[in-house]
Amino acid sequence: MNNKSAKDLLQYFRVKDNQKALRKLNKFIAEGKNKLHFLIDFDRTLTIGIDKTGRDISSWQILGNHLSEKARVKQRKLFLKYRPLEISGTMSHDEALSWAHQTLNIFTKDGINLNEIEKDFQQKTDIRPYAKEMLTFSEKLGIPTVILSAGIKEIISLWAKTFQVSPTLILATNLIIDQNGKIIDWNKNIVHTLNKKEQEHDKLTKIKEERPNTILIGDAFEDAEMTDGDKNVLRIRIFNPREDEKITQEEFADKTFEKYDLMIENGTLEPILKILEMIN
Beta partners for 213? Predict the structure, then answer.
């Protein structure tokens, strides 16, 4: 595949360093699908982050919407305490872990039932345009797709079932469910925004050893850190700021290119398909 073909891909993205992006694209195209895997964030990356009523939504919020009013107030207080730290980039690992533990404790004490959540899940969830096509085409090509998320694995699995997609691996916080569907505990190996690291997971290590080229896709600035390396990692960010981030598109782009190679501005994952079509 020649340089011109790879160069044609850049029209689908916003890019700052064209030459660096082209070097990576040419390398990935030349080395082919058998050396490639995807590492993908979930909330606001494979989803658009709002439900069908227009409200902000994440895998955590889907559970939170099923809390009693009293429990919901407690969860909201935690959000107001920790979210400003997350936005400012000053939240520590201990604070991120504490936030997750306290929220999960609210879920278990309030007796949330996953069976009830599944009943109305289809009316509330979403999928980013071309996400299904990207995942399906990757599966057809035999390219592993790994979701690494600070969300809830059971909700992500339900999402995959709803939209009939089959990611190779889902790494996220696991809930412990009783025989009636009630949340009774959680796996203490919590995945949060500050510890989403590819090399910390054995199953991923094996994939990366066999397929060293990584296309990383995320929406948050921190998602760029899901794996180490530069030459073998093409980092792509989706322009999808939350309402409370108060950032312009130009400010978002300037920050993005501190760590990412490419940015998608049209809200779809169709540009990723364009890459896959050249690797095919």
Answer: 36
Q: What tens digit of pLDDT does each residue of 123-161 get?
A: 677 899 999 999 999 999 999 999 999 888 998 999 999
Domain ranges for the chain: 3-50+124-279
pTM: 0.90
The stretch 7-34 carries a mean pLDDT of 96
Q: Which CATH superfamily is domain 3-50+124-279 in?
A: HAD superfamily/HAD-like (3.40.50.1000)
pLDDT tens string 53-101: 666 678 888 888 889 999 999 999 999 999 999 888 899 989 999 999 9
pLDDT of residue 49: 75
Per-residue H/E/C for the chain? CCHHHHHHHHHHCEECCHHHHHHHHHHHHHHCHHHEEEEECCCCCCCCCECCCCCECCHHHHHHCCCCHHHHHHHHHHHHHHHHHHHHCCCCHHHHHHHHHHHHHHHHHHCCEHHHHHHHHHHHCCCCCCHHHHHHHHHHHCCCEEEEEEEEHHHHHHHHHHCCCCCCEEEEECEEECCCCEEEEECCCCCCCCCCCHHHCHHHHHHHHHCCEEEEEECCHHHHHHCCCCCCEEEEEECCCCHHHCCCHHHHHHHHCCCCCEEECCCCCHHHHHHHHHHC
- pLDDT at position 2, please? 44
| Pairing relationship of beta strands 213-218 and 233-238 according to DSSP bridges | parallel
